[in-house]
Amino acid sequence: MGKRILIADDEANIVISLEFLMKREGFEVDIANDGEAALEAVNDATPDLILLDVMLPKMNGFEVCQQIRANPRWQGVKIIMLTAKGRDTEVAKGLGVGADAYMTKPFSTKDLVAQVKQLLGEGA
Amino acid sequence: MLQGWAIVLVSFAYLGVLFAIAYYGDKRADAGRSLIANPYIYALSLAVYATTWTFYGSVGRAAATGIGFLPIYLGPTLVVALWWYVMGKMLRISKAYRITSIADFIASRYGKSQLLGGLVTVIAVIGVIPYISLQLKAISNSFTILLHYPEIVMPAKAGALPFFQDSALYIAMILAAFTILFGTRHLDATERHEGLVAAIAFESLVKLLAFLAVGAFVTFGLYQGFGEIFQRAQEAPRLAALLTVANTGGSYGTWASLTLLSMLSLMCLPRQFQIAVVENVDESHLGKAIWVFPLYLFLINIFVLPIALAGLLHFPAGGVDADTFVLTLPMAEQRQTLALFAFIGGLSAGTGMVIVETIALSTMVCNDLVMPLLLRQRWLRLHQRRDLSGLLLAIRRWAITVILLLGYIYFRAAGEAYALVAIGLISFAAVAQFAPAMIGGMYWKGGTRAGAIAGLLAGFAVWAYTLLLPSFAKSGWLPLDFLTDGPFGIALLRPQELFGLTGLDEISHCLFWSMLANIGIYVGVSLTARPSVAETSQATLFVDVFRHAQGSERSRIWRGSASVQELLPLIGRFLGPERAHEAFLAYARSRGLQSLDQLRADADLVQFAETQLAGAIGGASAHVMVASVVQEEPLGLDEVMDILDEASQVRAYSRQLEQKSRELEAATAELRAANERLQELDRMKDDFMSTVTHELRTPLTSIRAFSEILLDDPELDVAERQRFMGIIVKETERLTRLINQMLDLAKIESGRAEWHTSELDLGEVIREAAEATSQLFRDKQVQLVLRLPQAVPCVVADRDRLMQVVINLLSNAVKFCPPHEGRVEVGLAADGDWLRVDVQDNGPGIDPADHEIIFEKFRQVGDTLTGKPQGTGLGLPISRQIIAHFGGRLWVESEPGKGATFSFVLPLGASAGAAEQHERTMAQAAR
């Protein structure tokens, strides 16, 4: 069975591109447009990996990440934080709250896919 | 057998030597090579303290009380330790203000008060005359005793002889003549007598050597040294008691009060003040005196007990007055030369005291008593006398004569009432009354004239009541029951057991009550009485002498006008025209002027003149005299204090400091605020950059992602490829729009935007904007209603910019309107001086908390339903800047769920032009 990936971002066009990329690699894709929706989605069907935007409405990516990490059920979920703010503090903060990787927008689609595959143990 | 004429001859020869020394001393002083510019001479002259009371009386007191004679010398020995502090200041004050006597000192301190000067003089004269009597008596007695050599016969009781046979009268007259010769040869502006001081120092040496000679003879000639005398005394039951320190309860108290009394009198006795302060030529001499003077006292006391004990052993039957042992012991041993030497020693002690004391008193009587009174007597026409120096000298000479005669009369009247020591102590207690006003005045600015007068009067009254009147009673001039039962039989008022105070000897009793009254009333009245300007300024000049004496403050606290033509004759009248002329010329030269004509009668000169005069007639009279020829403008207390008062200087200074520190604090606060503002700006810039970065990266992310997807996968189906390319184009447009708006805003904010202003019809602008956005309305099926009047007043503004604002508002409205049911209404109306535009939608509305936030850059308020709104987040900030540029205002009114109304107003007519004009000027200045 294919791995499940949750895309949490409020930029419609970015969601479209991510969805396309992930589906092309054979993953199942769920979409959430804000932080709360992202948590609901995780609760409904635990994904293997989340592409999590930081600047989300309602609840930002850091909080979502913390909440997921706080729940023992979701320890296995891999999280890649995505942000358009490229500052070092943001990266540190992201990794601090328990993200597995951190990617700055605009990202290279190849790198992103490679990162996702690596985290899911599928090899590059 | 010593012939009377031989004694007289030796005595006159001795006085002749003294006079020669004095004459030589004066000559040397005139030649500018002062004989007394020597600290040892100063220290020796201070020993004028040791009078016949010491020379003869100590032995007498020792014979009666053992070491009870010592406090009189312990006090001075202790007090010299304080001299560096107290006497140093007294010297500085006296030199700076040309103080001529202790009366002058106290009067000057309390506002140059003639009344106070007179009071001090009267107390001094009354207090000291018995002391002079004492000297006359001692000299006279010693002469009489020596006359009977080798027989030892006690002199007849005073007054027993007719006065023309009484040697004391002749001694008084000779001493008066001698004092006049010594002390009033000329009128010195500084009231200094260098020759006299040299002679006094010589006398101190003579009396010390004489006493030591007698002491050594008795101790080592008659006995085998101190040990044997004390041993013999120990064996005699009668004398053993003398060798213990104290055998009554009160004697410790007596010791303490006698020590205190002698401490005070060393500073307050007129002769001590004369020698220690007035005659001092160099303040640094004090340093030597501090140890030489106590050494002198030690030496002159070392043989007192041996002589007393030897005398008591030698004349066991009594009948020989212990006061005469110094003389009678050598006589009993047939030592003619030694006896004569002892007599000369006693003569030295007596004459030294009488001469200096009388000169000091005569100066006070003349300057502080007689002159002030004479100068008030208009009928004497003293003001018209050209030269008063002769009058001054005459007054002093008469004063000397009268004082000595009074001394003689007192001696005749009361000479036998008391032993020598008692009279001395009564004198001490009288002059000790000066101490509170004098010492208080040097260290306490709060002491006032009224306080000093009241304190002095009270102390003096208590002294007279508890010591003087009882001494009269004991002399038989007053009924004795006054002493035993109190006046009118009121026991509580018994003079020597006042208010039931018993257990003290009469001196301690007097000292206690008089000092209590004196100090208490001095302080009490000073604290309640308001001092005058003169008092306040004098108080400051005295207390802060080390700060003010050299400075120009004294002149600065005087304001008025005077002329040299008036001042010079005035000084001349008292000093003599020639001396005055010389003094003024010297003053002029010290100022670098060639002649008196160039001298200006400024405050400095007036001060100089007054100081010169003060040296001759005392500060109080000098002030009155100078004031009579100058027109003084009274200064207010505040003015004087501003100049003088340390407190106000310090206050002003600390006020300045406070002011400065407040300014500094304010500056610091401003700096901190500015710094915070800068940090805030920096943080905002940082945030802004971060936000801008975010806004730029977001479309770039889509563009890059889709470009790579398209690049990677050429096989993508056409529809998808078409869709992705559309996204790329849209995001590119978004990016472009964003960059344009950012640049636009940056230009407006920095004042570098270009404005093309013209008169325009806002209705037309709105119509055009509606036209431009009609496609948006159609796409979303939102209804647009324009409520525009036919004609509205024109505004002056940039047409394209206003169009930009209206389009922004319309497209925002559309964006938030619900599809299909959306409705946007635009209103336009003139409202007073303003033209108002309202754009109303029926969208979700905006929470009041967000009404201002939406005008901030990149701060969009999202619709929870539709997610992130479209747009750059810069439209409203730009619009607001544009409206503000034309002097108008843009705001929103809305409640959640009830739609939103964006409104702006623009000023009508001229004000817009003014704003424009202003803006152009600013823009040019910026370039």
Low confidence ranges of chain B:
863-867, 911-927
Question: What composes the largest sheet of chain B?
Answer: 5 strands, mixed
Question: Approximately how much helix is present in the residues of chain B?
Answer: 55-70%
Distance between the termini of chain A: 19 Å
Radius of gyration of chain B: 52 Å
Q: Report the portion of residues of chain A in β strands.
A: 15-25%
Largest interface: A-B, 27 and 26 residues
Looking across the biggest beta sheet of chain B, what order are the strands in?
Answer: 4-6-7-9-8
Q: What oligomeric assembly is this protein in? A: heterodimer
What general outline of chain A do the C-alpha atoms trace? Answer: globular
Q: Tell me the number of strands of chain B.
A: 9
- Order of strands, main sheet of chain A, comes to 2-1-3-4-5
Counted beta strands of chain A: 5
Provide the gyration radius of chain A in Å: 13 Å
Q: In this structure, how is the largest beta sheet of chain A organized?
A: 5 strands, parallel
Helix content of chain A: 40-55%
Helical segment tally of chain A?
5
SSE string of chain A, helix = H, strand = E?
Answer: EHEHEHEHEH
Our count of helices of chain B gives 37
- The stretches of 5 or more residues of chain A where confidence is low (pLDDT under 50) are none
Write the layout of secondary structure elements.
The complex is a heterodimer of chains A (124) and B (927).
Chain A: E1 4-8, H1 12-24, E2 28-32, H2 35-44, E3 49-53, H3 61-70, E4 78-83, H4 88-96, E5 101-104, H5 109-119
Parallel strand pairs in A: 1-2, 1-3, 3-4, 4-5
Chain B: H1 4-30, H2 39-46, H3 52-65, H4 71-79, H5 83-96, H6 102-109, H7 114-147, H8 167-183, H9 194-222, H10 226-235, H11 237-240, H12 251-268, H13 270-278, H14 285-301, H15 304-314, H16 325-332, H17 336-376, H18 389-414, H19 420-431, H20 434-443, H21 449-474, H22 481-484, H23 506-528, H24 533-543, H25 545-548, H26 553-556, E1 560-561, H27 564-575, H28 577-590, H29 603-617, H30 619-629, E2 631-632, H31 637-644, H32 646-712, H33 718-750, E3 757-760, H34 762-780, E4 783-787, E5 795-798, H35 799-816, E6 823-831, E7 834-841, H36 875-885, E8 889-894, E9 900-907, H37 910-926
Parallel strand pairs in B: 4-6
Antiparallel strand pairs in B: 1-2, 3-5, 6-7, 7-9, 8-9
Helix pairs in contact in B: 1-9, 2-9, 2-14, 3-15, 3-17, 4-12, 4-14, 6-7, 6-20, 7-8, 7-17, 7-18, 7-19, 7-21, 8-17, 8-18, 9-15, 9-16, 9-17, 10-15, 12-13, 12-19, 12-23, 13-17, 15-16, 16-17, 17-18, 18-27, 21-23, 24-31, 27-28, 27-29, 29-30, 32-33, 33-36, 34-35, 35-36
